[in-house]
Structure to design on (261 residues):
């Protein structure tokens, strides 16, 4: 996934054995990885939407206009350059009110804890890695069933 | 680790604060650092005991002088790398919450074993 600030970094090399296995079965790897990344992207979007609920925002969201929630990329799409797939996650910084400052905080405002759980913590990346692993294993099982 | 980070950043002779520690209405110094500990999970486990800690900090520099904002975060990156920190990017803009100040940030990682 895109390696920008406030992105989530997943090391896809850990899936190379599963990808090799799928490749040997003749699976469409690009389609499988597109599906898995877009599914994970939607999960991140839903978690981000929950995290920016008014109760979690500074001053319990009394200054919130809703722009931050509107700037969340809800249905991220993978873009491929050769064998490298990238997907935008979190806030669309081209939209007004994009909530990047809620992740980094400001001198007057601590970062929003619930967003840190998503964009700062290794535990969230580990959970995503496990989900992707499960998805790839399910694809292998499907192929084995289909061509048995 | 936090103390070591503050000590390193303090060598630039600008104040160092925890992110979010200014109250509404507080006047910012002309230039200053802030930091925030994002995460500090165990690095590995052996025999039911943790082995090492992966520290992740955000380090920001704010200034009324935009050139200084860029220069100091670059110098901080160099200094941290000299002291075995990993700083995986040249930095990014951060909001200062004051029109007088610009801000730049870096993520600083340290494996403590």
């Amino acid at each position: 996934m895109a390696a920008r600030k406030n992105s989530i970094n997943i090391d896809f090399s850990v899936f190379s054995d599963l990808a090799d296995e799928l490749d040997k079965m003749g699976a469409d790897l690009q389609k499988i990885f597109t599906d898995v990344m877009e599914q994970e992207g939607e999960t991140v979007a839903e978690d981000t939407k929950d995290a920016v609920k008014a109760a979690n925002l500074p001053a319990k969201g009394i200054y919130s206009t809703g722009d931050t929630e509107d700037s969340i990329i809800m249905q991220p799409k993978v873009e491929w350059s050769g064998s490298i797939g990238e997907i935008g996650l979190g806030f669309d910084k081209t939209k007004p009110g994009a909530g990047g400052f809620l992740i980094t905080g400001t001198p007057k405002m601590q970062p929003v804890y619930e967003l840190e759980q998503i964009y700062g913590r290794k535990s969230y990346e580990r959970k995503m890695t496990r989900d992707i692993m499960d998805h790839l294993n399910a694809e292998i099982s499907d192929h084995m069933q289909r061509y048995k | 680790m936090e103390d070591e980070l503050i000590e390193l950043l303090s060598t630039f002779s600008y104040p160092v604060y925890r992110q979010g520690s200014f109250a509404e209405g507080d006047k910012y110094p002309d230039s200053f650092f802030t930091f925030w500990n994002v995460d500090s999970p165990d690095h590995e486990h052996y025999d039911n005991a943790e082995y090492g800690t992966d520290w992740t900090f955000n380090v920001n520099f704010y200034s009324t002088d935009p050139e200084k904002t860029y220069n100091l975060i670059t110098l901080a990156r160099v200094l941290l790398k000299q002291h075995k920190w990993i700083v995986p990017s040249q930095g990014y803009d951060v909001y200062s919450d004051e029109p007088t100040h610009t801000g730049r940030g870096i993520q600083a990682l340290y494996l403590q074993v």
Summary: The longest helix of chain A spans residues 122-146. The helical segments of chain A are 16-24, 29-51, 67-70, 100-104, 113-119, 122-146. Chain A touches chain B through 16 residues (CB under 8 Å).
